[in-house]
Design a protein that fits this description.
Structural class: alpha/beta
Shape: globular
Distance between the termini: 18 Å
Helix content: 40-55%
Strand order of the largest sheet: 1-2-3-4-5-6-7-8
Strand content: 15-25%
Largest sheet: 8 strands, parallel, barrel
Number of strands: 8
Order of helices and strands: EHEHEHEHHEHHEHHEHEH
Length: about 250
Amino acid sequence: MRKPVIAGNWKLFKTTTEAIALVTELAPLVGTVDNVEIVVAPVFTVLSSVQRAIAGTNISLAAQNVFWEEEGAFTGEVSPRMLLDVGCSHVIIGHSERRQYFGETDTTVNRKIRAALNGELVPIFCIGETLAEREAGKTFDVLERQVRGGLEGFTSDQLGPLIVAYEPVWAIGTGKTATDDQAQEAHAFVRGVLAKMFDQGTAERTRILYGGSVKPDNVKGLMSRPDIDGALVGGASLKADSFASIVRFGA
């Protein structure tokens, strides 16, 4: 059985005071949940403060990005060792906004995944097609290219901790959500690519999350599908009550 993961990507929101207030409100709302892995991903500047606030709770800490070198003349970057130092256990890699606005490619995503795994961080590896690509019938081509590019050169043994997040770009922040059938179809396809690249065991154990306007009122339907193992939540993770409702989807 794959343990579900509900991860909140806070993006460019929350000052230190606001971030502490959010997790302080969230922690008691999800404190009895033991069948879901709960992750929050604040901005770099509040990671240390959030880690102190969630210490002793069932909430894990993720960063929203990482660089592939441990140290050096790389102004503005943060290494895996530095993320571990402030208490991170997970890191989001290859989010569509990073690809769109900051020039991330399958090659740089691959290097970041390798650095994260070598640095004992759990990568949340993001993939997904644009609206134009979906309308052109290229969804599966895009997903296979991103999965193969991001995981090229890895062995099955190295990928044990890996989490994949399928986020159709056309559903991020738009209020549109892939239907349960669309999401399941994409997840099953990605699992099939993993089986072809590695083996069936790797495909079966890898958790694949759905992201794209996940809300309390649509998460249950998504989570009912066999290949959907959780959610990468954007806007709804910025409020404790809505994020807690998503975490408690099975209650």
